[in-house]
Write a structure and sequence with these properties.
Blueprint lengths: L2 E7 L3 H14 L4 E7 L6 H6 L4 E5 L5 H12 L4 E5 L3 E2 L4 H10 L4 E7 L16 H11 L7 E4 L6 E5 H7 L12 H11 L3 E9 L1 E2 L3 H5 L4 H16 L4 H4 L29 E4 L5 E5 L2 E4 L3 H6 L7 E2 L3 H4 L21 E5 L5 E5 L2 E4 L14 E2 L2 H4 L12 H4 L7 E3 L5 E5 L2 E4 L5 H5 L7 E2 L2 H6 L8
Parallel strand pairs: 1-2, 1-4, 2-3, 6-9, 11-14, 15-18, 19-22
Antiparallel strand pairs: 4-8, 5-10, 6-8, 7-9, 11-12, 12-13, 15-16, 16-17, 19-20, 20-21
């Protein structure tokens, strides 16, 4: 069984030489080297032409990371394809252990290692000052141990191993991502949608400089990433941070969740994200099929709730629901809070906290949020959450559809946002039933309305 190692180069000859030297010294399984050069002008192509073990494809111009990888995969002869950045160094047992993690389970679609510069779920902090230190560290770290393998919802493309049949099944990387960024997240998500799992080989470490091609060639990393993040949002309708920064079990194959962007709704259901009171005055937050009790008047106040947001006399609905985790701000943050809420830190900066991620946010008035709704959060609690992409300009391009808000289309039709779908409000008593007010509805642009999937009507 052979692995085709596909490397894309764009200048950085010194790093390319370093990478290839480490592959030749430490690769312990059959492999071929395929290198696609995207228009280097520093002597890279001339040097690569003199390497007898390299299958070189010289483009002359920059076709982008996805386009070049697709070229390399098309030329590959191996049973497996491994995408590897040229600013990496590999070491002892790296490939054999990645192969072991891939082939132990037929359902495993892709495997990636741990690294020093990588997505959070693959990251390991190490202090390495030179190659000798790295190889010494890797010799002790890279020891076969399946107990250290974990399934995740995204893997970095800097070092990504998969079977050739998986590559063919997914039709390679999406070349619309251009120069590069988020094409690996898109690729991984398509694997998840196909019922495959993504695995981090926690027993294997590959060194990575990180962003070397961007920096060497004077490219605007933030601008390119921002544009490609918007492309991901358009493709899939939800924030990619939900794959990158947290592990949501509902995205794993075989696990279903209502009101979730990864799943189509199975049928009409009670909406989430609203408050209701029973006949005894108890207040509950309805989320994902559960009623979450607001444990006290103090908790009610700390969450900046008001009775005009609470549906009255809702016993007939509350009695149908099981009790979920209480809303209790004194609990470990953010367990005792709603899954989506507006927050403010001690210096007055506002955030949307959504599904365990905080997003810097300054357009809350545009979406009908009232300033007094923002929940005060300490710096300590705030810093426990990973930070997503700032939502500071166009909310319709920088963020997924906001859940649990009322929207009104250009023709006057009202909708409710839930699971990144719009549910049309069809019943005449719906607003009073759920404590909603028409005057709080947000005007949704027509193009956003047209591209957003629909859920079942709320009656």
């Amino acid at each position: 069984m052979m692995t085709s190692i596909v490397i894309v180069t764009f200048n950085n000859l010194i790093l390319t030489k370093r990478c290839l030297e480490s592959i030749r010294l430490f690769t312990d399984a059959p492999y071929e080297l395929i290198i696609i050069d995207n228009g280097s002008e520093d002597g890279t192509v001339a040097w690569l032409k003199d390497q007898p073990d390299v299958h070189l494809i010289a483009n002359g111009t920059n076709r982008g990371f996805a386009g070049a990888c697709n070229q390399g995969a098309a030329a590959a002869k191996g049973d497996n394809i491994l995408l590897l950045n040229n600013d990496t160094i590999v070491s002892y047992r790296w490939l054999s252990q990645l192969l072991s993690a891939l082939y132990t389970d037929e359902r495993t679609g892709m495997v990636g290692p741990m690294s020093n510069f990588v997505l959070p779920m693959q990251h390991k902090s190490v202090y390495i000052t030179n190659e000798d230190e790295y190889h010494s560290f890797a010799d002790s770290f890279n020891r076969h141990d399946p107990a250290l393998w974990t399934n995740v919802t995204s893997l970095s493309g800097f070092c990504l191993l998969l079977r050739r049949k998986t590559w063919n099944r997914l039709s390679g990387l999406d070349e619309l991502y251009g120069i590069g960024s988020y094409e690996d997240i898109d690729f991984c998500y398509r694997a998840l949608r196909a019922g495959l799992t993504l695995r981090v080989a926690g027993d294997t470490f590959v060194y990575h400089d990180g962003n070397s091609s961007f920096q060497t060639n004077g490219m605007n990393i933030y601008g390119i990433a921002g544009a490609n993040r918007k492309l991901f949002l358009r493709n899939w309708g939800f924030n990619p941070e939900r794959l990158i920064l947290t592990v949501d079990p509902a995205i794993f194959p075989g696990i279903y969740a209502e009101a979730h962007p990864h799943h189509k709704p199975k049928g009409p259901s009670l909406p989430s994200g609203w408050y209701a009171a029973d006949k005894n005055g108890g207040v509950y937050r309805i989320e994902r099929g559960y009623k979450r009790p607001v444990v006290s008047f103090e908790a009610f106040c700390r969450l900046n709730l008001s009775m005009d947001r609470v549906a009255a006399n809702a016993d007939y609905l509350l009695n149908k629901l099981p009790t979920g985790t209480p809303l209790q701000p004194e609990s470990p943050f953010p367990d005792g809070y709603p899954d989506v809420f507006l927050a403010r830190d001690p210096v007055g900066a506002t955030f949307i906290v959504a599904y365990g991620i905080r997003y810097p946010f300054n357009n809350y008035a545009t979406l009908g949020f009232r300033e007094n709704e923002a929940v005060s959060v300490s710096d300590t609690d705030n810093n426990t959450l990973p930070s997503g992409w700032p939502v500071l300009q166009n909310i319709w391009e920088e963020y997924e559809l906001f859940d649990y808000l009322l929207y009104q289309g250009p023709d006057g039709t009202f909708y409710y946002g839930e699971g990144q779908r719009l549910r049309r409000i069809a019943g005449k008593d719906t607003f009073s039933r759920y404590g909603w007010r028409k005057e709080n509805a947000v005007a949704i642009p027509e193009d956003v309305l047209e591209r957003t999937p629909r859920g079942f009507d709320i009656v």
